[in-house]
Write a structure and sequence with these properties.
- The chain folds into two domains: about 70 residues, Orthogonal Bundle (Arc Repressor Mutant, subunit A); about 120 residues, Tetracycline Repressor, domain 2.
- With about 190 residues, the chain is an all-alpha fold.
- The protein is elongated.
- It is about 75% helix and about 0% strand.
- The N and C termini lie far apart (about 60 Å).
- GO terms for molecular function: DNA-binding transcription factor activity; transcription cis-regulatory region binding.
Length: about 190
Amino acid sequence: MTTRSARTAERRAEILRAALEVIAERGYRGASLAAVAERVGLTQQGLLHHFPTKEALLVAVLAERDQWDAVPGGGWRLDLLGQLVEYNAMRPAIVQTFSALLGESVTEGHPARAFFTERYATVRASMAQVLRAEYGERLPSGLTPERAAPLLVAVMDGLQYQWLLAPESVDMPEAFRDFLTLLGEEPSPGGN
């Protein structure tokens, strides 16, 4: 990598970190390119050189966040998911940004809506694979991995919201470990 391209990559990384912070503080709709540019010591025109639109910056932020959480070869296992939850507990600004964008993306016309729609389809399929690798074709409850996958994703994301709102009362990693224990339990007699 040349010195110039290294500087460009470094500047883009700075902009993405600043965008994460601004979105975490204000949400996507409240975040402005001017605020992100100011945070990294650029003019808005200088920022537009790297990201020509606010939507382009948003897509880059989301893609970068997913890169941080990627496991080479997509080799997720339940124990690695627990480690991811612990890792997320150490980076509240990223979790807050993701959660703010996720919440806003459910509104019609939001630029992150397509990203999250596609991402959740991929994540559900990936979680079904994780559950199948751990439990086979049926979990102890009798559910198939495909039926349980949306629940696993919902617990992970729901814990993030609860933790962000009450970090002193919700221990996200511990709660996720409790969920994994619950997931692996045999159904109670008389249950469905």
